[in-house]
Write a structure and sequence with these properties.
heterodimer, A: 687 residues, alpha+beta, Tachylectin-2, Chain A, Immunoglobulin-like, Alpha-Beta Plaits, 4 domains, five-stranded antiparallel beta sheet, four-stranded antiparallel beta sheet, 39 strands, globular, B: 719 residues, Methylamine Dehydrogenase, Chain H, six-stranded antiparallel beta sheet, 7 helices, 43 strands, 25% helix, 35% strand, Bardet-Biedl syndrome 7 protein (chain A)
Chain lengths: 687, 719
């Protein structure tokens, strides 16, 4: 504690004191934006005020400057393919004032006047998600591939293990590329070769390089998916004010944060100074002197709002004459009134159409909805995040299996009665006014021991916006049967009992891939390469059993004949069990403690609130003292899992399932006695 | 909006756990407010920060110097306080236990009165009511309300059809006299004036809190998380939360709402928009208004269940709670600009939608490549409500006028569906049609607004059009008319006389029933009207006969339905008084049974109480004997202790029996009260009031025959 305080003091010495009371000032609206597509151009000539460029989903690139608090269009392109990346670069020796945009597999270059000086179409198959430009070198990332172009010719390329999220180039005498890879970490490339690798456990999402570092150092900050309680990081930027450097963070939950960074000592943890909440995912946060000489933070959001955050004294103080804001407000009021009238006219025309005898075809554009399904964490919940450009009124969810559900605190979830007394589930999520992002967590209700899983769960989500347009977008999801797995690096340091399943038959790679989506989350980049043959290896016998069930079920549906053979070691349960023996013991203890805690709580001991607390024997006192921390145990789940292993092992080893055998095991597990002996005995007997 | 950093103006710890909702603040000495709360089963704590140590029965708490403890031998269910004694300005403490009510003068350490409450005590409130000049204590039980004065005399009594959960005195009809607003667990807010119910407001869940706002407005909170404000009997706004509102208070022109999870928010009075919110460190136990700092204006006093007390001053516009920073006009401009952009963005999205529509208008229907969001422009949605006697429900038929299908239908209606307020139909892909039926089963006879959102498109669309419609179900929608001639209309009926043309009756029928065809009189000369109806819920019959001489007869086995019909008709015809003659053998039989039951239980209770007292006495004698024996004969001691244990077990068994008889008594009393309530509703105005008074007398006298007579003809004393 005390060391932090001292550090805090020393910080004040190198920076001027600044107030973090920032006000929002809205500049304008563009289309839906992708992450990091807003860039502030360097100042030109005498003027300190900087222009900025923003590209949107409609394919429009605009370059704007702010005059009297109002945006002035410098240039604006025609609509086209969605712009997914915007970068600035310099032609040799000058300022970085060339604007590059990537859309699909195309890259275009614009001068600051809006003249196209470069336009190339690459042979890349996937959309370019990020890029960087060094002199006449162009580095493009699309899918899992980083491609290096020199003088517009492909120079080299590198294929990563997973999707490339972001890239930064460090150019001195040699060019080194820092590449951020989904679920994995970061790698450093030089000349198309891997020279270094780092694993980032929290799942990186975005990186940024501090301005003005020594060119020989490779330093970058990354944002993470898990977001430490807040939303995942969507974009990063830098904000310089009063001699203080801040890293600016824009998150998916709509929060914008400023962290003070010690530029002399990057090892120091950046300190959070400011948080603003704008209500929808933030796609760009960059600092610059946009409206005046004083620096401000320029923000773009998913739905296409562009606004500045600047010190209150500067936003509303003497520097900005009050009438400017009032004029601006007046103008906007007129504009909105005009739009309202126009909309009313169009609305009426639309209504009239519904009564007309001549049926045309109404084809409104698809609602801008983004969604992602996150893999399960160890508690089994899978989370789907839905982001909309317009405020949502409600979600309506249908799944073909019963699921347990949770949702945002800002939304009300109700499981509805369905008329068909089937196994399906209907639920509605009603959102608070202005909700643009909402998450729903789903978990299968575990009755796995009684029925074997034959397919994944299909979930339909209809997203209904609160206002116009009155259309509902359908999002279809597939929850895999085994949601816990995420692809990982192959490590074989431990001794495990591997169970194997081999499948061969007349199926294509695509078919097997689609079957696998029923089982496992995520994509399968390098799992399957051979037609008609697949091999699965796991130390979890239940996993193998599930895959076997699903593959056989799917192949029957497609009427494809497959041969399956299993290789199950006799000691698999025992070996797997040894792996979590300690955990099992812990959880057992915990479950006992909870029973004790509940019993003690029933005594209503704390009503007297003595200073020393109630007088109890040592064991009880320990439970009582830690009553706040012992809340839940996974003991039940563990017992279930182990039992399932045992049953699956018996099934796959073609042994008969005696009911009393598993009952015996269950009793042994629950009492935490002799289970090891039981397993040893039972599995040895077979061999 | 931010989770605000509002700081409380005062903060204290009681060092006691607090039972939620059993908290009050009272001025026992007439000037200094003292927080009083239940701290556990039978313990009451009184916080007196202004000195004046309470003496007498109360003991100084060991856990807190400024807190006194008061131990009762019974569970504390409700607490209230008020200046009941007319001669002093001091607040008297009212303590409600499951079957009794005790009024205690804390300052003088004397009992004011002690009264049995056989119907239970759920809520106590104090205040002025009607023309009564002194402060009354009003007690809400399981199926009745009762008012008593400071000497414990009953001032009035009435039956309520549900368990009373919230009560306030409030001048509902603005005549300068307070009425009693009663919130019940049967989802009604009822207004009692002059011992007559003058209004009932149907809500969508059990009413958990009520709070006055100003002369014309009051706030309410429901068990399903809804809170809102009524103005002159019309709902101004409501919002719903996942949490339950524990208390509502009007403070500084805002509605402060305290949620059970410890969140407190301040809302704008006219819209319900949240202005500020804070989160307590523990779950909430209470929120009250009191001038706890003695500054001349009441603060909001929030109490958590861990015993933390936080005080907040009244909220002030513009400045919030911070008097230092005032918002500048330019800041206002900035906010307005952001808001205008919000509007502009929404409008632009809508415009784009229409533009895209117009652009694709030329696409012909024959086009094979149908986009994933397409739909014919002249698609319309039609909705009808049909009776379905086979499935004992109403069917909402939702259909389109072309080959598009109803992919899903969401029906939002309150109080109709077993699980929440939304019902969804989402047919299997094979069953997709342009027509979809949604079953509706309103469990009670109140008008319901049914909002329908239907998703219309093609079976494989990726986007569907939302069609919205609202339909009102009339009050008696669950009754289907039939034309068959009926001779035997049963022996259950109510008759009365009205002087009204059948033409007007006809309008009432059309408004309140869902008839396949509107009821039309054959000619102007028609003087009588006969309607036969079938109840979809239980397939029972209802016959309504309006004779030419003004005699009306409603034949149904259901006394409640008869009452509902009479009340509805009386409101429609603006009748102030109505007497009726009723014949409901089912209800009469039930009444006899319940009366019998109640008196039996009464006898059993006194017998059990005597037994318990006897055993308790024995134990008190045996226990010291056993202790004495320890000194000389261990075996003897053991024997005596064994006896004590045995007796103790007997006592415990007795206790269980007593508890279950108590529960039975409450249930019996409740169904008895329900029948009386139904009898009251067969009459209007002074006649219904007379039924209340007469039946109270008859119940107290245990006179079954008189009660039956009252059900049949009302109180015959009044003519």
């Amino acid at each position: 504690m005390s060391t932090t305080a001292i550090k805090g003091n020393s910080h004040c010495n190198w920076g001027h004191k600044m107030d973090y009371d920032l006000s929002r000032i809205d500049y304008g609206i563009c289309g839906i934006t992708y992450p990091d597509t807003l860039k502030i151009l360097p100042p030109s000539g005498q003027k300190m005020e900087q222009k900025f460029a923003i590209g949107d989903k409609n394919g429009v690139l605009q370059c704007l400057s702010i005059k009297d608090e109002e945006p002035v269009v410098q240039f604006k392109t025609l609509p086209g393919k969605p712009i997914t990346s915007v970068q600035l670069a310099s032609s040799l020796g000058t300022q970085a004032d060339k604007i590059f945009t990537a859309s699909g597999n195309e890259v275009k270059g614009y001068t600051r006047k809006g003249k196209v000086f470069l336009s190339i179409e690459t042979s890349l198959t996937e959309t370019i998600t990020s890029m960087c430009i060094i002199g006449s070198d162009l580095i493009l990332c699309s899918g899992r591939i980083v491609t290096y172009y020199r003088d517009l010719r492909e120079y080299n390329s590198y294929e990563c293990d997973d999707r490339v999220l972001d890239i930064a180039a460090f150019a001195s005498t040699r060019v080194r590329l820092l590449v951020l890879i989904a679920n994995k970490g970061a790698i450093l490339l030089e000349n198309g070769k891997l020279i270094s690798r780092t694993v980032i456990s929290s799942g990186p999402s975005r990186l940024t390089v501090p301005p003005s570092t020594h060119v020989t150092d490779i330093i970058a900050f990354y944002g993470a998916v898990d977001g430490r309680g807040l939303g995942s990081v969507v974009c990063l930027g830098w904000y310089f004010n009063n001699g203080n450097f801040h890293i600016s963070v824009g998150r998916h939950d709509g929060s914008i944060q400023l962290y003070l960074v010690d530029m002399e000592n990057f090892g120091e943890k950046p300190r959070l100074k400011y948080t603003y909440f704008c209500g929808e995912p933030v796609t760009s946060v960059v600092g610059g002197s946009v409206a005046a000489e004083e620096s401000e933070l320029l923000v773009a959001t998913f739905s296409g709002r562009i606004f500045g955050l600047r010190s209150s004294h500067f936003a509303t103080g003497a520097k900005v004459p009050q009438d400017i804001l009032a004029t601006r407000r007046g103008k906007l009021e007129v504009e909105v009134a005009r739009l309202e009238k126009q909309t009313a006219n169009e609305r009426e025309k639309y209504q009239r159409n519904t009564r007309s005898l001549h049926a045309g075809l109404s084809t409104p554009p698809l609602l801008d909805i983004q969604y992602e399904l996150l893999g399960a964490t160890n508690d089994g919940w899978q989370e789907v995040r839905i982001t909309s450009a317009v405020p949502l009124d409600m979600l309506f969810i249908n799944s073909n299996k019963k699921l347990a559900m949770q949702t945002d605190t800002a939304a009300v979830l109700s499981i509805c009665s369905s008329k068909e007394a089937g196994s399906d589930l209907l639920a509605s999520v009603r959102c608070q006014a202005g909700t643009r992002r909402v998450w729903v967590k789903m978990r299968e209700i575990s009755n796995s021991s009684t029925e074997s899983k034959l397919e994944g769960t299909r979930v339909l989500i209809y997203a209904l916006p609160a206002g116009a347009p009155r259309v509902a977008r359908l999002v279809t999801l597939k929850l895999p049967a085994l949601p816990y797995y995420s692809s990982h690096e192959a490590v074989e340091k431990e001794e495990r009992a591997w169970c194997q399943l081999e499948v061969s038959g007349n199926f294509s790679v695509a078919e097997m891939t689609s079957w696998l989506t029923e089982v496992l989350p995520g994509e399968f980049p390098d799992l399957l390469r051979i037609r008609g043959h697949a091999k699965f290896k796991s130390d979890n016998v239940s996993t193998i059993a599930t895959i076997r069930n699903i593959v056989s079920n799917c192949s029957v549906e497609k009427s494809i004949r497959v041969e399956m053979s299993c290789d199950i070691p006799d000691n698999c349960c025992l070996v797997s069990f040894k792996q979590l023996e300690n955990k099992f013991k812990q959880e057992y203890k915990k479950s006992k403690d909870i029973i004790l805690k509940n019993a003690i709580s029933m005594l209503d001991l704390d009503s007297s609130m003595n200073e020393e607390g109630p007088i109890l024997c040592q064991d009880y006192a320990r439970v009582w003292d830690s009553r706040e921390s012992i809340n839940e145990t996974q003991f039940e789940e563990l017992v279930e899992t182990i039992l399932q292993w045992y049953l699956d092992w018996r099934t796959l080893s073609l042994l008969e399932n005696f009911n009393n055998e598993s009952t015996k095991l269950e009793t042994a597990l629950r009492k935490n006695v002799k289970w090891m002996i039981f397993l040893k005995y039972s599995q040895k007997n077979v061999s | 909006m931010q989770f605000s950093t509002v700081q409380p103006v005062f903060k204290l710890e009681l060092n006691h756990k607090i039972t939620p909702e059993v908290v009050t603040i009272a001025k026992y000495d007439g000037t200094h407010p003292c927080l009083t709360a239940s701290a556990g089963y039978d313990k009451i704590i009184i916080h007196h920060p202004h000195g004046g140590m309470v003496s007498g029965r109360a003991q100084r708490s060991q856990a807190h110097g400024e807190v006194s403890e008061l131990n009762l031998s019974q569970a504390v269910i409700a607490l209230a306080a008020g200046p009941l004694r007319p001669d002093t300005g001091r607040d008297m403490l009212l303590i409600g236990s499951p079957t009794q009510i005790l009024a205690y003068d804390v300052h003088d350490n004397t009992d004011l009165f002690f009264k049995e409450a056989p119907d239970g005590v759920n809520v106590i409130t104090t205040g002025f009511f009607g023309k009564h000049t002194e402060t009354l204590a009003i007690i809400g039980g399981n199926s009745s309300v009762q008012a008593i004065d400071w000497e414990g005399n009953e001032v009035f009594w009435n039956v309520v059809s549900g368990k009373v959960c919230a009560m306030i005195t409030f001048d509902f009809d603005k005549d300068g006299e307070n009425e009693l607003l009663i919130g019940c667990d049967d989802s009604f807010i009822r207004v009692l004036k002059n011992n007559q119910f003058i209004a009932e407001i149907a809500e969508t869940g059990p009413i958990m809190c009520l709070s006055p706002v100003n002369e014309v407005r009051f706030a309410y909170g429901l068990a399903n998380g809804t809170i809102g404000i009524y103005e002159e009997g019309i709902r101004l706004w409501r919002v719903k939360s996942k949490q339950n509102a524990l208390a509502l208070q009007w403070s500084g022109d805002t509605l402060a709402c305290c949620w059970s999870n410890g969140r407190v928010d301040w809302r704008e009075g006219t819209t319900g928009r949240v202005l500020r919110r804070v989160q307590m460190r523990a779950n909430a136990a209470a929120m009250l208004l009191a001038d706890y700092r003695s500054v001349g204006a009441p603060d909001l006093v929030c109490v958590s269940d861990k015993g933390e007390v936080l005080g907040y001053p009244p909220y002030q516009e513009n400045t919030g709670f911070n008097t230092a920073t005032k918002s500048k006009p330019s800041e206002e401009d900035l906010l307005a600009i952001t808001e205008l952009f919000n509007k502009k963005q929404a409008l632009m999205v809508e415009l784009q939608h229409y533009e895209a529509n117009a652009a694709s208008g030329s696409v012909s229907l024959e086009n094979l490549e149908r986009p994933a969001s397409a739909m014919p422009t002249n698609t319309r949605l039609q909705v009808a409500i049909l009776h379905s006697p086979e499935e004992a429900c109403l069917q909402l038929a939702v259909s389109t006028n072309n080959e598009t299908v109803v992919r899903a239908a969401l029906v939002l209606a309150e109080g109709i569906f077993e699980s929440g307020e939304t019902f969804i139909r989402h047919p299997q892909p094979k069953q997709l049609r342009s027509l979809l039926h949604v079953p509706l089963k309103p469990p009670r006879d109140v008008p319901v607004d049914v909002h329908i959102k239907a998703l219309i498109g093609y079976p494989n669309s990726e986007q569907f059009h939302i069609f919205e419609l609202t339909k009102q179900l009339p009050r008696f929608a669950m009754y289907q008319s039939f034309t068959k001639e009926v001779r035997n209309k049963g022996n259950s009926y109510v008759t009365f006389r009205i002087t009204e043309r059948v033409q007007r009756i006809c309008i009432w029928v059309n408004q309140n029933f869902l008839l396949e065809e509107e009821l039309n009189l054959e000619s102007e000369e028609t003087k009588e009207l006969h309607i036969n109806l079938l109840c979809l819920r239980d397939q029972s019959y209802l016959y309504m006969d309006f004779a030419a001489d003004g005699q009306v007869k409603f034949s149904t086995h259901d006394i409640r339905l008869a009452g509902d019909l009479i009340q509805s008709l009386a409101v429609y015809l603006n009748l102030t008084d109505l007497q009726s003659v009723a014949q409901f053998p089912e209800a009469e039989k039930k009444l006899r049974e319940e009366m019998e039951h109640v008196s039996q239980i009464g006898e059993m209770r006194s017998r059990l109480a005597a037994e318990t007292a006897e055993r308790a006495q024995l134990i008190t004698a045996l226990l010291p004997a056993a202790q004495d024996a320890a000194a000389y004969d261990l075996r003897e001691m053991l024997n005596r202790y064994k006896e004590v244990v045995m007796l103790n077990e007997e006592l415990l068994t007795g206790c269980y029996i007593r508890r279950s008889t108590q529960e039975q008594a409450v249930t019996s009393l409740k169904s008895l009260h329900t029948i009386l309530q139904q009898a009251v509703r067969l009459r209007v105005g002074k006649y219904s009031k007379a039924v209340v008074a007469a039946s109270r007398k008859a119940v107290q006298a245990n006179n079954i025959e008189a009660l039956i007579k009252i059900i049949q003809v009302g109180d015959s004393m009044i003519t």
